[in-house]
Design goal:
Length: 464
């Protein structure tokens, strides 16, 4: 439940922000902002939430986690609002819109905090009402840079409300109440979301580990293939064997039946088994590495679940949940030490990854890209796998697609031609070639680009 206009007035009277200086801005997420205001006696962290069903403004008594990446609106506020003085902090009538009049040097700003569940926003304007920026840019409402915002002209609310009864500081009780019941920031809801996400990943990981262990058990029989080759070489001839089976005794005197090709020599038949032996042996090492990696990830997920259930701060829990959804390890040292294989190119907010070998291609596919990321590869030429990291709610611009296409041609055998066809699709539409070499995939629902290499574009990407 959001604050009503009477509760907003009570909060503002408790905070007594007039004459305070805004010394710090923290934007924990896209709908949570914390203004740290310093009065003569203390610092007041003022939490502003635009979360649907939990729109509110009050002092918070919990640690405010910083966003791991700079957020646009917070950066704007740091450049304009930090170190400004609050000359006035009032609600406009009964309309659940709080206006802060701010002064920094000779510059004056107005910050409007609109606490409507269906259209909450924070808007900063100049003295003339021209919007400088908004936390949520809403073009249909004209709430974008350069627009005009004058909520003083809006009609006041006519409904009557009652103030919820809390003992002691209203802000302190609100902080505690919303931590437990506050819509999207409810501890219980966040825990349910996190547990559901973790259980899904743990279930998929357990199934994958079971499959890998089955492959490991099959790989342990690799020595039998080598012994078959040795037995074939010990025979004087296998030509004309019928019906393509060699029936003989093994080195311990037991009967054995080995499938062969009667048209080939003993050496050729033996080499076939030796080749299978080498492949099984090498594959077994890779399978064991994958099992060890999977078991470590499973332990990490268990640790994340334990931490999630123990956390009591909803702001920190929300950030933890985002890490869990993104698959980021909770151990910060491990996260910092984890490197993406291959090459990484940045074009603005877009990230492009390139594998330089079959091993790197395979590792990127297995551990570093997700289903909605894009995969590109030069058609009919051996070369790198190129991936474009998908951004939530964004379509890949043509320029980014051309950047990735140029990289796909440059890091392939088609480089000397100067041009080639490149096909692309989402990672979720790739399937592994059964029995094929490491990293080999077969694309489906692919589209085609014809790329002529652009040296200037490649040089720009190299510098990125």
């Amino acid at each position: 439940m959001s604050l009503n206009w009477k509760e907003i007035n009570l909060v503002l009277s408790e905070l007594d922000l007039e004459g305070a200086q805004i010394q710090k801005i923290i934007q924990s997420s896209f709908d949570i902002l914390i203004l740290v205001a310093r009065t003569r006696t203390r610092s007041i962290p003022v939490l502003v939430s635009l979360s649907s069903g939990a729109c509110r403004l009050h002092e918070t008594f919990r640690a405010a986690p910083k966003s791991e990446q700079p957020l646009r609106f917070a950066e704007f506020l740091k450049s304009r609002i930090v170190n400004s003085w609050i000359e006035e902090a009032v609600q406009l009538g009964q309309n659940r819109v709080v206006r802060l009049l701010l002064r920094r040097g000779e510059n004056r700003y107005q910050m409007y905090i609109r606490l409507w569940s269906n259209a909450a926003n924070i808007i900063v304007t100049g003295d003339d009402g021209v919007i400088l920026d908004a936390m949520r840019r809403l073009p249909k409402r004209g709430e974008v840079s350069g627009g005009i915002y004058r909520p003083e002209a809006e009609a006041p609310a006519a409904r009557e409300y009652e103030i919820r009864e809390f003992e002691g500081s209203f802000s302190e009780k609100l902080d505690a109440w919303y931590a437990e019941h506050g819509g999207t920031l409810s501890l219980e809801q966040l825990r349910v979301q996190g547990k559901k996400n973790l259980e899904g990943r743990m279930g998929r990981l357990a199934a994958s580990l079971e499959h890998l262990r089955e492959k490991e058990a099959a790989g342990l029989d690799a020595d039998r293939l080598r012994i078959c080759g040795d037995i074939i070489l010990s025979q004087s001839s296998v030509e004309g064997a019928k019906p393509e089976w060699l029936e003989t005794v093994d080195f311990e005197g037991g009967a054995i039946r080995i499938k062969i090709d009667g048209k080939k020599t003993p050496a050729q038949n033996a080499e076939h088994y030796y080749s299978q032996y080498r492949k099984a042996k090498n594959g077994l090492d890779e399978i064991r590495k994958e099992i060890a990696s999977g078991e470590a990830e499973y332990k990490q997920l268990l640790a994340s679940e334990k931490k999630l259930l123990a956390e009591t701060n909803p702001l920190i829990l929300e950030r933890l949940l985002k890490k869990i959804k993104a698959g980021v390890p909770e151990d910060s040292k491990a996260a910092k030490g984890k490197k993406t294989p291959g090459l990484c190119f940045a074009d603005g907010p877009w990230i492009i990854l390139a594998g330089r070998s079959a091993k790197e291609n395979d590792e990127l596919l297995r551990k570093h890209v997700r289903g909605n990321d894009f995969w590109l590869h030069a058609r009919d030429y051996a070369g790198s796998y190129i991936f474009i990291r998908q951004r939530a709610g964004k379509s890949v611009p043509l320029e980014i697609l051309l950047d990735a296409g140029n990289l796909a041609v440059f890091y392939s055998k088609a480089r000397n031609n100067g041009s080639a066809d490149v096909y692309y699709t989402r990672v979720k539409y790739l399937r592994r070639a059964k029995g094929g070499p490491r990293g080999l995939v077969i694309p489906t629902q692919e589209k085609n680009l014809h790329i002529t290499m652009d040296r200037e574009r490649l040089k720009r990407l190299e510098n990125s």
